[in-house]
Amino acid sequence: MCETGADPHDVLTAMPRPAAGPAVDPIALEPVDEIKITTLVDNVFDALLTGDERTRRASSGAVVAAPQFETGRTTPGMIAEHGFSALVTVRRADRSTTLLFDTGRSPDAMLTNADRLGIDLSGLHGVVLSHGHYDHAGGLAGLAGRQGVRALPMVVHPRVWTRRRLAIPGGTTEELPTLSKRALEGEGFAVIERRDPSLLVDGSVLITGEVDRTTEFERGMPPPHQAWTGSEWAHDPLVIDDQALVVHVRDRGLVVLTGCGHAGVINIVRQAQRLTGIERLHALVGGLHLSGPAFEPVIGPTLAALTELAPSLVVPGHCTGWRAQHAMAGAMPDAWVQGSSGTTYRLTAAV
C-alpha cells in the first residue's frame, strides 16, 4: 500500500518485546483429521487453473442472466478484488466446524462468490478478523444484511478499531475506513477482543493473537502508514492487531492461514511453532505482504527462511505481489500453488 521505506531504527524501537525460545506454557492444540480452506475472495481469479488431489478449483456451474447471449444467460466465474476472505472447515472424527476468516473488501464479493460456489454461510460457527484493514472487513456488511448474525462470535484483537491513514509524502493523504464496534454489535455480532492467543473449536483452532516480532528483516509498514494516537497521527509500522489462524493436521504439522501477514510471515510461523511446540510446517496459505518497493527487499530473506521450513503446500495470495510469487514458484515448485478466488484446499491427516 505504501511506496517508501521505513527507518529500521524507528521500526525496531517501536516493536513489542520478542519472546524467543519455547513458550512457558505451551498451548495444547488438538490435532484435526482434516482442514478445508476455501478462498472466497482473493486478488485474482483464473478459470483455467487445474486442480489435484488436494486442490479443487471453482467450477463454472453458476449461471446468471445475460440477454446479450442467444441463451439469455452466461457463467460469470468468481469475483476477484484487492481483499481476502477464506472459509475454514475443520473436522475431528465425524464432527465439523466452520469459521469465516476475513470477509474481503466489498460488501457483496464474498457473498456472491459463496452463492456461486453453492456455499451456505448460515451455518457459520464464528468469524475471525486477521486485522482491521478494510480490505479484510468490508464483507461484514453484506454478511449481516443477508441473514442476520445474532450472537455470532467474532474474534478480534483489541486494536482492530484503530484509525489509520496513508499519508504519501508529496502526494495525497487518505484516511482508511475504520471498523465500528458499536455498529457490529448492533448488527448482532458477539465481539470477543483478545490480545493473547485464543483456542477455538474444542481446542483445535488457534488464533495467534499478538505476534512477537523476532526476525531482523520483517520491519513492518513504512512511514506513510499512520495511526491516530488520540492526539496526533504517528507512524504505525506494526499493525499490532495482525493475527493468524493455526491448525494442527494430525501427523502432518501446522497449517497457518494469514490475512496480510503484516507481522511478517516468518514471525507468524515461528510464533505458531513456539506456542504449540510443533515444529513441522505443513501448509501456509494467505497474504504475505511482499509487494511494492518497501517490501520487495524482504523477499530474499523471507524465501530463505520459508524454504528451510520446507512446507508441503504454499499458497501466497492477496498482497504477496508478483515478484514474490515468481520467486516462491521457482524456489519451491512442488509446494507453491497459484491462488484464485473460489479454490478449496483440502489437507488431511496421514493414513
From TrEMBL:
Residues 94-183 form the Metallo-beta-lactamase domain. It comes from Actinoallomurus bryophytorum. Gene3D superfamilies: Ribonuclease Z/Hydroxyacylglutathione hydrolase-like (3.60.15.10). This is 7, 8-dihydropterin-6-yl-methyl-4-(Beta-D-ribofuranosyl)aminobenzene 5'-phosphate synthase. The lineage of its organism: Bacteria, Bacillati, Actinomycetota, Actinomycetes, Streptosporangiales. It comes from the Bacteria. It holds the Pfam family Lactamase_B. PANTHER family: METALLO-BETA-LACTAMASE SUPERFAMILY PROTEIN, METALLO-BETA-LACTAMASE SUPERFAMILY PROTEIN (AFU_ORTHOLOGUE AFUA_3G07630). One of its GO terms (molecular function) is transferase activity.
